[in-house]
Amino acid sequence: MITPVLLTGGSGTRLWPLSRKSYPKQFVPLMGAETLFQASALRLAGPDYAPPLVLTNSDFRFIVTEQLAGIGLDPGAILIEPEGRNTGPAVLAAALWLQRADPEGLMLVAPSDHVIPDAAAFRECVELGCAAALAGKLVTFGIAPTHAETGYGYLELAEAPENGAPAVIDLLRFVEKPDAARAAEMAASGRHLWNAGIFLVSVSAIIAAFRRHAPELCDPVERALAGARPDLGFLRLDPGAWAGVESISVDYAVMEQAENLAVVPFAGGWSDLGGWDAVLRESGPDADGVVTSGPALAIDCAETLLRSEDNGLELVGLGLRNIIAVAMPDAVLVADASRAQDVKRVVAELKARKARQAEEFPIDHRPWGWFESLVIGERFQVKRIHVHPGAALSLQSHHHRAEHWIVVSGTAEVTIGDEVRLVTENQSVYIPIGARHRMVNPGKVPMVLIEVQTGAYLGEDDIIRYEDVYARGQGAKG
């Protein structure tokens, strides 16, 4: 049995404005109806796989469970990292957790934001690597290059794969991201593969590798796990111990120093969707190299991506060449396709200007559902709020704002002070400043309402929680 270990910590800034810190690319349906995270979980599901172990942060914990439930998968453990420490400590924490139940079991470490269209072919490669992993090898999966890519690291093989057939081959070394000339040379050599950052290892072998090559990580990660506390269905690693963990990738910490390395070449399609140019390439452009998504129209365009994420915003390109245009309700990106890797610079510039669009997604996801701001003005804000069936907001109050709720779909059970009443479609209710209140969807269909806030301060951190079925603390999200 193989336990998938899904890493969900990436921020995906090169896919701004669709991917942002508050809601990164792995949770977005970039390449179809499923999100990248859901596709990754389904790819590693089946009779040979245990429920996935997920490492995430506090803000994403309910998104993870909601998206897994949406595809009919129950998770194994969900470990909450108090703060990001890169992939090295995350992999070690997962291995130490799995060691408790099956120290000789196999774990497959995978980012949750990659695209692998042929899941069956990838699982065959995993099966091929199992014997080597059980024998103590640290097995990685290398992607046969389709072009000279400078944005990936490479794997140098001891020998070229025979006729491109899947096999387990000794790995000589990792190669850092090359310049264009070196990338072209390696892509043509037959002995170099792209490093996909996916590893198949036995629990005991990877822990032994950390103890040998990165012993400074072991004690604080072990203490973070020993001091972890359950929180509903999650396990929160101890923040004090975790704060002392070095931030380092598993490649630097272990893989680039280990001698017991092997690689399984994978010639199927793969992409880490590291930029909008990759999305254009992987989305199946038409004969002119054009991809449109949402309410978008391309006229006399070539090698161009037009994507609108707002049903009320029609995006039209006329006579464009090598252009990426992505429209969101609150931000629009227009870029030369050759500058796709520089989009992270856009995010940095927006952060310097303190623009909320740099990191905040226009839809704010919560464990009970989501909301979006429709209009923000001086001393008022209008939101659309969507509450899942059976879900409940916390019992709360606000110091600086009053709220008017108008139900437009479904039924809300509203508590204001000691009064509880049902509010149905086309009915409204008023919550004065300071009043304790709560909203519950008692029905079996989503409940949607419009909220009008008025007051001197409308920030999400103006909230005091008294009771919460999701066990959140204080603060904007808890």
**Subunit arrangement of the protein:** single chain
Shape: globular
Q: Which class do the helix and strand fractions yield?
A: alpha/beta
The domain count comes to 3
Largest sheet descriptor: 6 strands, antiparallel
Question: What is the terminal separation in angstroms?
Answer: 36 Å
Please bin the fraction of helical residues. 10-25%
CATH superfamily of the largest domain: Spore Coat Polysaccharide Biosynthesis Protein SpsA, Chain A
Rg of Cα set: 24 Å
Q: How is the largest sheet built, in terms of strand order?
A: 18-19-20-27-22-25
Helix tally equals 11
- Weakly predicted, low-confidence segments: none
General description of the model:
This protein is α/β, with parallel strands linked by helices. It contains eleven helices and 28 strands. The strands form six sheets. Strands 18-19-20-27-22-25 form a six-stranded antiparallel sheet, with no helix packed on it. A five-stranded mixed barrel has the order 5-8-6-7-11. Helix 1 links the parallel strand 1 and strand 2 (53-57). The longest helix is centred in the first third of the chain and has 16 residues, at 119-134. The model has no long low-confidence stretch (mean pLDDT 93).
